[in-house]
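Tokens help. Consider this.
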Amino acid sequence: MTTFVLVPGAWKGSWAYEAVIPLLERAGHTVHALTLTGLRSDDDDATIATANLDTHADDVVRLLDRHHITDATLVGHSYAGMVVAAAADRADGRISRLVHLDAYVPSDGDSCWSSTNDHFRDVFATGAVDTGYTVRPPAGGDPRRRPHPLAAFLQKIRLTGGFAEVPRREFVYCSGWEDRTPFAELRTRLQADPEWQVHDLPTAHDAMHEAPEAVAAILLAD
């Protein structure tokens, strides 16, 4: 039995995985889906304003501690590639598998801002004008999305080596939005790296909703 820890991307909560969770549970596995600090409906302004990448990595580590998880498959979508990398780095060997689901794969000193493309830097900057500390969701999409803490996009990650020691690391590339994806060069780089396994899905960015069975199949593969 596998323990999955699912971390949503920007603006989203645990509901982002709602179509995938039952597929994993029906296969007999334990699933924990997170809503990160600053994205919860009861978070006050001070909590939202001070939440950053470290806060979100600590959310994951606290979940591992709370549930006494010592052998997790950690999945991060989009922005949460930064989160799962930072969490794996400080999880003291408790992550056995990382899956970056159309997600950033950072090196030490990277931020989401530095790792993305001009399209998303414009989304972040334009979306922050309302408060200066949150980024409103882009137009359209799921109405449950919430403003995302700006500091989480801007903070540089600090990796000390634990992330690179996770024995199984995978990247899922969604090819159905190639006009805007920031991950095309990353896919090419990871395909040439023997320490990574790369999967392709012909979906848009939110593969969990567009093709939950295909996402679950990747997660359930031996």
The longest helix spans residues 53-66. Residues 3-220 form a domain with the Rossmann fold fold (CATH 3.40.50.1820).
